[in-house]
Amino acid sequence: MADGKMVYLDAKGQVNPVLRAKVGDTIELTLASGEGAEHDIVIPDFKVQSKPFSAASGPTTVRFTVTQSGSFTYYCSIPGHRQIGMEGVLEVTGPADASAAAPKGSNTAVLGSAAAPAVKPIAAVATDAVSIAMDPTAVPKPLGQRAPQLVKYSIETVELAGKLDDGTTFTYWTFDKKVPGPMLRVKKGDTIELTLTNARSSKMIHSIDLHAVTGGHGGGEHTQVAPGESKTVRFKAMNAGLYVYHCATPDVPHHISAGMYGLILVEPPEGLPKVDREFYVMQGDLYTSHKKGTKGHQAYDTDKASDELPTYYTFNGSVGALTKEFRMQAKVGETVRVYFGVGGPNKSSAFHAIGEIFGKVYSEGSISSVRRDVQTTTVAPGGATIVDFKVDYPGKYLLVDHALSRVAKGLAASLEVTGPADSAVYQPLSGGAHADH
């Protein structure tokens, strides 16, 4: 890092040095890193790409022959690293067309490399994959009436293989090994001290941007944390509401899509109205190299993300997280509250409960304004809402995005309600099944 940017340095400490050569020269580059994040170097015009390197891997070397003159770009191809500063220039002087000047048998690509196929075969399923789905009942208890105080949180960013779908795994980037990350709960007026630690096993730099924070890019400016390091920020919760937090390290969409998002609730001084059950649900859109349902270990697809063409949509990180792995449950007559957010990074949600009506909606996470009797509420990427409703009839209620094609891509959650059926509320009058969705 130099002046807040990620860069290449030469032996003299020059930032992103201009590399100079003549046509016909053979160049050997030795690359090393003193920190845990993984890097590489790419020079597309000469078909050069190094192996990834880090402090753990030790140095790597590439050797190639320059066969044409001009100005050529070199950069790091790890997502986001080029955007944050790892880019320089190779200047080659000599004849404009000098392919004949290259020595016989010269290698114009990284040693041992081969041209990549248009579509790479999917890797084998990760045998060490674990569940990354956040339990929707993992909601901190209401804080009650109390004076503002200092609240301390510690969060670790962890990269790990996780279960995405049946027979399908993915390399998730997480806050505390779960998607979404832990729900934080504070009071308006509290001072929060948050320490972010990046696991030593990580290959990427990570950070945290909390939408509840005023200043410092929401904390993202001062929490760019390399593997094995920690950084701490302190901020005051100045506005009540439900707010998204996410990683703010380039390539930001990659970090978010891979699972780095969560919610922080800032309660008003008087707290929120009491309910019987509280749940924590977040929606994400995920972009993979192969179509949904392909068995194996899916890779992140930067082009699909750029074109906003998700392969999967998820509630709490994986397909089936809230229909198979975890179930939300309530009893007839209880009041239910869902803290709902959209990590994204790109797609809005038309949040809807099939067979229920939201009695209260704290639209856009604003606690100061309440809408009543809402069928479907729109939540923007990077936005949140709180919905309250009373369950008056038993059954299985599906929470969905009412852009209903997304259900087939993984976006469904189940709320199971048990108790007596009141025929005044609902009564099937024939044996045939019927649904309005």
Automatic annotation (TrEMBL):
<feature type="domain" description="Blue (type 1) copper">
    <location>
        <begin position="58"/>
        <end position="92"/>
    </location>
</feature>
<feature type="binding site" description="type 1 copper site">
    <location>
        <position position="246"/>
    </location>
    <ligand>
        <name>Cu cation</name>
    </ligand>
</feature>
<feature type="binding site" description="type 1 copper site">
    <location>
        <position position="255"/>
    </location>
    <ligand>
        <name>Cu cation</name>
    </ligand>
</feature>
<dbReference type="GO" id="GO:0042597">
    <property type="term" value="C:periplasmic space"/>
</dbReference>
<dbReference type="GO" id="GO:0009055">
    <property type="term" value="F:electron transfer activity"/>
</dbReference>
<feature type="binding site" description="type 1 copper site">
    <location>
        <position position="260"/>
    </location>
    <ligand>
        <name>Cu cation</name>
    </ligand>
</feature>
<comment type="subunit">
    <text>Homotrimer.</text>
</comment>
<dbReference type="InterPro" id="IPR045087">
    <property type="entry name" value="Cu-oxidase_fam"/>
</dbReference>
<dbReference type="InterPro" id="IPR008972">
    <property type="entry name" value="Cupredoxin"/>
</dbReference>
<feature type="binding site" description="type 1 copper site">
    <location>
        <position position="402"/>
    </location>
    <ligand>
        <name>Cu cation</name>
    </ligand>
</feature>
<dbReference type="InterPro" id="IPR033138">
    <property type="entry name" value="Cu_oxidase_CS"/>
</dbReference>
<feature type="domain" description="Plastocyanin-like">
    <location>
        <begin position="164"/>
        <end position="270"/>
    </location>
</feature>
<keyword id="KW-0574">Periplasm</keyword>
<feature type="binding site" description="type 1 copper site">
    <location>
        <position position="211"/>
    </location>
    <ligand>
        <name>Cu cation</name>
    </ligand>
</feature>
<dbReference type="InterPro" id="IPR001287">
    <property type="entry name" value="NO2-reductase_Cu"/>
</dbReference>
<comment type="similarity">
    <text>Belongs to the multicopper oxidase family.</text>
</comment>
<keyword id="KW-0560">Oxidoreductase</keyword>
<dbReference type="GO" id="GO:0005507">
    <property type="term" value="F:copper ion binding"/>
</dbReference>
<keyword id="KW-0677">Repeat</keyword>
<dbReference type="GO" id="GO:0050421">
    <property type="term" value="F:nitrite reductase (NO-forming) activity"/>
</dbReference>
<protein>
    <recommendedName>
        <fullName>Copper-containing nitrite reductase</fullName>
        <ecNumber>1.7.2.1</ecNumber>
    </recommendedName>
</protein>
<dbReference type="InterPro" id="IPR011707">
    <property type="entry name" value="Cu-oxidase-like_N"/>
</dbReference>
<feature type="binding site" description="type 1 copper site">
    <location>
        <position position="247"/>
    </location>
    <ligand>
        <name>Cu cation</name>
    </ligand>
</feature>
<feature type="binding site" description="type 1 copper site">
    <location>
        <position position="206"/>
    </location>
    <ligand>
        <name>Cu cation</name>
    </ligand>
</feature>
<dbReference type="Pfam" id="PF07732">
    <property type="entry name" value="Cu-oxidase_3"/>
</dbReference>
<keyword id="KW-0186">Copper</keyword>
<keyword id="KW-0479">Metal-binding</keyword>
<dbReference type="InterPro" id="IPR000923">
    <property type="entry name" value="BlueCu_1"/>
</dbReference>
<dbReference type="Pfam" id="PF00127">
    <property type="entry name" value="Copper-bind"/>
</dbReference>
